[in-house]
Amino acid sequence: MSHKLLEGKRGIIFGALNDMSIAWKVAEKAHEAGAKFTLTNAPIAMRMGAINDLAEKTGSTVIPADATSMDDLQNLFTQSQEVLGGKVDFVLHSIGMSPNVRKKKHYTGLNHEWYKQTLDVSGMSFHKVLQVAYEQDAINDWGSVLALSYIAAQRIFPDYNDMADAKSLLESIARSFGYHYGVKKKVRINTISQSPTVTTAGSGVKGFDEFIAYSENMSPLGNASAEACADYCIAMFSDLTKYVTMQNLYHDGGFSNTGVSAEVIEKFAK
Ligand SMILES: NC(=O)c1ccc[n+]([C@@H]2O[C@H](COP(=O)([O-])OP(=O)(O)OC[C@H]3O[C@@H](n4cnc5c(N)ncnc54)[C@H](O)[C@@H]3O)[C@@H](O)[C@H]2O)c1
Predict the structure, then answer these.
(1) Tens of pLDDT, residues 102-118
(2) In whole angstroms, what is the distance from residue 97 CA to residue 202 CA?
(3) Number of folded domains in the chain?
């Protein structure tokens, strides 16, 4: 696929950790689609070094930033505009982390300091990114900002733990900031609610393999892949979706509207 849908556009892509990351696929496809962008991740994630390969492949500059630090974000937006030669047209927030999930704390017995970190890294960081962009006036009119979410924001998936609360916050920020940024600069802000996908963050959730199989069986089209998610992101960054804003967009093969599927019922047949 090489539609030059993003020709002339500039962007910032958060969250490419390795070649399984959804953000990694978005960067590859944005490059194919003609965009110029900077890549960013938490300084600690840089240690793995893989992001430099992606930068080389896509002709991008890497600018480290902890998405919970306003200073890092100020620097990221300032430097990105310098490197790219102007305001940006798109931003991808592809960030998630829960110390409670990592350390296997049950939802009914959370460590509340870690809970704050989950909400800060996975939810509030989206507000911080948007606030810095808004204050610097760093996004062009009709620009498009996306964050990645999961249906646990609406329904209970027990092992998703406190990440569910962070995703609810994330989706709410897209609506609230989407209103204000829309009025001021016609910038659109949405979340994409993606199928479970095999990545470093995804695999941290307990029982993930069984869960992927369940979701595959419950989705008429099957689980959406990371590549397909990246295609959807490119469409959302393009001018073909200019009036879509403040939405949580399901990209899940139909999972969210399926009560039960024949395959799942079959497993209960006596
Ligand atoms: N994998 C799935 O099943 C799935 C499903 C729906 C939504 N999502 C969401 O997609 C997004 C991307 O996740 P992924 O599955 O590609 O996994 P991933 O592990 O490749 O990406 C998560 C990224 O968050 C970054 N990050 C963590 N803390 C950070 C911080 N303080 N500052 C900046 N970056 C930080 C990590 O370094 C990593 O690059 C996340 O928001 C995730 O919740 C994933």
Answers:
(1) 999 999 999 999 999 99
(2) 10
(3) 1
